[in-house]
C-alpha cells in the first residue's frame, strides 16, 4: 500500500512539474498585439487616498496578483517549431517594481503634472522581453485625486481592458463593505427584439457589407485626410506624447441620455465628435470635404450576452477579444452654427447602423481567413494600416460602480491609457465609481493637449446645457 501511495505521489509530482513547465501558444490576437510591426501597452493608473509603499505592493503582487493567471509569471518564448508560447519562469517581484523620484517641495498641482509627464515617458519605453511583460510603478507623491499612485503597466499581449477589469474584481475590495462583491452596470450588447421584417434583414446585410468594405479599405489603400488631429507621419507612435483627461459624472450622462435617447455610449461618442469639431474650429482647420474616421475598439465578449464579470470569468474569456469598427466622424463647417445635440443624434444614428450589422460577429472568422492567407505578420500589418489610415482610436472599459480599495487603501481615481497606437490622437473612456474618465493621449509636438482638454470640457458642458437647459455645477 505504501509503494502504491509513493507511486501515486510521484505521478502527481511529475504531472505538476509538466503543468509548471508546459508552454501555452500565444493566441493569434496576442501575437498581433506584440510583434515587430505593432506593440501595444496598457497603463492602469490608480490614485490612492492613502499612501501605498513598495513593500505592501510586493506582498500584493505575490499573494494576489501572480496567482490570478499563469501569463503574469511567463515570458514569450519561441519553441523549436517557431511557435510563440507562454513559458513559465521564476518571478523576482522586486525586478518589476519601480519607485520614481520627483523633485521635493512641489505643490499638488505640480506633482499631478509630474505624474502625467512620467506616464508619457514610461508609455513609450518597451517592456523587457527577458521578464514577464508587466511592471508596477509606485509613485509616492500627491496628485489631485490622491496621496500617491500605483501604475500597472502591462503588454496588451497579456490581455485587454476587460482582462484587467477581472484583475480589479479579484484584487480590489468594496470600500463600504469588503465582504460584498463589486458589481458592474449592465454589460450585455445583445440586441433583443421581436419579429424582424424583410427590410430589417436586407438593411442588416447592407450594413454588414458596408462595414466589411470600409474595414478592408482602411486596412489597405484608403487613408483619412490629414488634419489637425491626424499628422499622417510614419511611425507616429514613436513621437513624444502628452496625456490629458477630464472626469464626467455618469449621472449627468444619464440625464443627457434620458433627454436625447440612445445609449450612454452614444452620448460619449457625441461628446468626442463635438470635441473634435471644436478643436478643428479653434485651430482653423476646415473639416468640410475631409474624410475622417474613428477606429473604435469593440469588445466581442458582449456579443455573448454576459451580464456580469463572474459570467465572463467562468466562461474563461481572459485574453484579447476585440474587434475594430471603422466609424465615420461627421464633418461640419466651422462657419456653420451647429446645435451641440446634433453630434449626439448623429452618433446614435451611426452607432445604430453599426449595431444593426453582422460585422462584429464576423470579425473573428475574417481574421482567421486573413491569417491563413498572410500569416500573423499579415494580420499585424493590416491592423497597423487600419490604425494609421484612420484619424483617432476610441476604446472604452466599464468598471465597478462602487468605491474600491486596494489592500485597505481607498481609491480616488482609476484611469487607463493605451500606448503604441500609430495615431496622433487616442481616446480612452473608463466608467468607474460613478464617474467617466475621458482621456486623450496626443502627439505632443503636433496636438495642443491643453486645448484638447478645454474642448473636451466645452463639448460636454454645451451638450449638457442643450439637453437639460442648465449648466453643470461641477
Describe the structure.
The protein is an alpha+beta fold. The protein folds into 2 domains: 25-174, Chloramphenicol acetyltransferase-like domain (Chloramphenicol Acetyltransferase, 2-Layer Sandwich), CATH 3.30.559; 198-398 and 422-468, Chloramphenicol Acetyltransferase (2-Layer Sandwich). It contains 12 helices and 16 strands. The protein has helices at residues 2-21, 28-33, 54-65, 108-123, 161-171, 198-218, 250-260, 264-282, 309-314, 341-355, 359-388, 449-468, and strands at 24-25, 41-48, 74-78, 84-88, 97-98, 134-139, 148-155, 173-174, 241-249, 293-299, 322-328, 392-398, 404-406, 409-419, 425-432, 435-443. A hairpin with a 5-residue loop joins strand 3 and strand 4 (84-88). Helix 6 packs parallel to helix 11 (359-388) and helix 8 packs across helix 12 (449-468).
Task: Record keyword descriptors for this entry.
474 residues, alpha+beta, Chloramphenicol Acetyltransferase, 12 helices, 21% strand, globular
Amino acid at each position: 500500500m505504501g509503494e502504491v501511495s509513493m507511486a501515486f505521489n510521484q505521478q502527481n509530482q511529475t504531472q505538476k512539474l509538466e503543468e509548471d513547465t508546459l508552454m501555452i501558444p500565444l493566441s493569434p490576437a496576442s501575437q498581433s498585439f506584440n510583434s515587430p510591426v505593432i506593440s501595444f501597452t496598457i497603463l492602469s493608473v490608480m490614485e490612492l487616498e492613502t499612501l501605498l509603499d513598495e513593500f505592501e505592493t510586493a506582498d500584493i503582487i505575490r499573494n494576489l496578483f501572480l496567482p490570478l493567471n499563469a501569463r503574469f509569471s511567463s515570458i514569450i518564448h519561441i519553441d523549436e517549431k517557431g511557435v510563440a508560447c507562454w513559458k513559465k519562469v521564476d518571478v523576482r517581484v522586486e525586478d518589476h517594481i519601480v519607485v520614481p523620484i520627483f523633485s521635493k517641495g512641489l505643490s499638488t498641482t505640480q506633482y499631478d503634472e509630474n505624474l502625467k509627464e512620467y506616464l508619457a515617458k514610461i508609455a513609450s519605453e518597451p517592456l523587457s522581453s527577458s521578464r514577464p511583460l508587466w511592471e508596477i510603478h509606485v509613485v509616492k507623491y500627491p496628485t489631485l485625486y490622491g496621496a500617491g499612485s500605483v501604475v500597472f503597466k502591462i503588454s496588451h499581449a497579456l490581455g485587454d481592458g476587460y482582462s484587467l477589469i477581472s484583475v480589479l474584481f479579484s484584487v480590489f475590495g468594496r470600500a463600504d463593505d469588503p465582504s460584498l462583491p463589486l458589481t458592474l452596470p449592465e454589460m450585455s450588447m445583445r440586441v433583443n427584439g421581436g419579429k424582424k421584417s424583410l427590410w430589417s434583414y436586407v438593411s442588416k446585410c447592407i450594413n454588414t457589407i458596408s462595414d466589411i468594405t470600409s474595414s478592408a479599405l482602411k486596412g489597405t489603400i484608403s487613408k483619412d485626410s490629414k488634419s489637425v488631429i491626424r499628422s499622417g507621419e510614419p511611425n507616429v507612435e514613436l513621437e513624444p506624447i502628452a496625456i490629458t483627461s477630464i472626469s464626467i459624472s455618469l449621472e449627468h450622462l444619464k440625464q443627457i441620455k434620458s433627454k436625447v435617447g440612445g445609449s450612454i455610449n452614444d452620448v460619449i461618442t457625441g461628446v468626442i465628435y463635438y470635441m473634435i469639431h471644436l478643436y478643428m474650429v479653434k485651430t482653423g482647420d476646415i473639416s468640410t470635404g475631409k474624410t475622417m474616421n474613428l477606429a473604435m475598439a469593440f469588445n466581442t465578449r458582449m456579443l455573448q450576452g454576459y451580464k456580469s464579470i463572474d459570467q465572463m470569468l467562468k466562461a474563461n474569456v481572459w485574453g484579447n477579444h476585440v474587434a475594430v469598427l471603422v466609424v465615420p466622424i461627421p464633418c461640419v463647417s466651422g462657419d456653420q452654427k451647429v446645435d451641440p445635440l446634433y453630434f449626439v443624434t448623429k452618433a446614435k444614428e451611426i452607432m445604430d447602423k453599426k449595431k444593426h450589422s453582422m460585422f462584429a460577429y464576423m470579425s473573428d472568422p475574417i481574421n482567421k481567413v486573413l491569417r491563413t492567407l498572410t500569416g500573423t505578420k499579415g494580420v499585424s500589418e493590416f491592423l497597423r494600416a487600419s490604425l494609421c489610415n484612420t484619424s483617432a482610436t476610441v476604446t472604452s472599459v466599464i468598471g465597478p460602480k462602487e468605491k474600491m480599495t486596494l489592500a485597505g487603501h481607498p481609491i480616488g481615481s482609476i484611469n487607463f491609457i493605451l500606448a503604441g497606437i500609430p495615431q496622433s490622437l487616442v481616446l480612452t473612456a473608463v466608467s468607474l465609481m460613478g464617474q467617466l474618465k475621458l482621456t486623450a493621449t496626443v502627439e505632443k509636438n503636433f496636438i495642443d493637449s491643453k486645448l484638447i482638454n478645454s474642448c473636451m470640457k466645452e463639448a460636454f458642458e454645451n451638450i449638457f446645457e442643450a439637453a437639460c437647459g442648465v449648466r453643470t455645477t461641477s
